Amino acid sequence: MNxxxxxxxxxxxxxxxxxxxxxxxxxxxxxxxxxSRAVSETLGFVLVFALVTTTIAVTFTFGLGGLEDxxxxxxxxxxxxxxxxxxxNLRDISRDGVPSRATEIRLAxxxxxxxxxxxxxxxxxxxxxxxxxVERTRPIVYRGAGDSAVxxxxxxxxxxxxxxxxxxxxxxLLVNDDGIIVSVIRIGGVSRSIAGDRTVLVVGSNADxxxxxxxxxxxxxxxxxxxxxxxxxERHYEELAAEHSQIRLDDGDTPECEGDGDVTVCxxxxxxxxxxxxxxxxxxxxxx
Length: 288
Known about the structure:
Blueprint: H1 30-96, E1 100-106, E2 111-114, E3 118-123, E4 132-137, E5 140-143, E6 148-153, E7 156-161, E8 164-169, E9 173-176, E10 179-188, E11 192-195, E12 199-213, E13 221-226, H2 230-243, E14 247-249, E15 263-267, E16 274-287
Parallel strand pairs: 10-16
Antiparallel strand pairs: 1-12, 2-5, 2-11, 3-4, 3-13, 5-6, 6-7, 7-8, 9-10, 12-16, 13-15, 14-15
């Protein structure tokens, strides 16, 4: 019994019919394509949302922290510049005898304080009955974040951060073969502290200027400094001692240079040379 005949070169198409190419074609269900497209769009949305969320999280974690650090660094730089200007203004009073000078300092969240007194003592036979000349001065101190601080103390600007620090502007000091002149800035005023984001005007007024001569029978003069920033002062005078043979420090091993201060500095101008203290009293006021 003969079956149905098939024509050569023909296949069966998706509907069960042969096509002319000899291959079987398969019909795709339109519903399957639409579901795949929906799944792809949903997956893409999830990935984009996850990327945006991660970017925001990284920005808040690292970006804002870095921005805050940059703002604090800029604030500290601005305060240091303001203290540099104040140093020059108060030096005009000391050197030139101008009546007054004023300096603006923007607090930017920090605190400006006229602190308790730092003491400076000069020892040498012939000074008063006890052989001592004493000056007390109030440091002007700005405190920012953490342990960082900028201080104007005895004619110098000291920048500190915890136990570390440096002298941004040193006090006036003249050392040569003819003698030594030490400048002492006595800051007076009522102890006061101001904090916030405002700008404070620091007004310095000339109260007194005088020169104190060393007694002629003293070849060596010892200067003792009692200060919360003693370590910064010590490093400053160590650098000066390396430059000038007339300056030495009490290192605990030199009997010829000993003292009771937080820092002890010995000056040796020589018997025929002068040793002068140029003392200036400046009254400080904080105004808005």
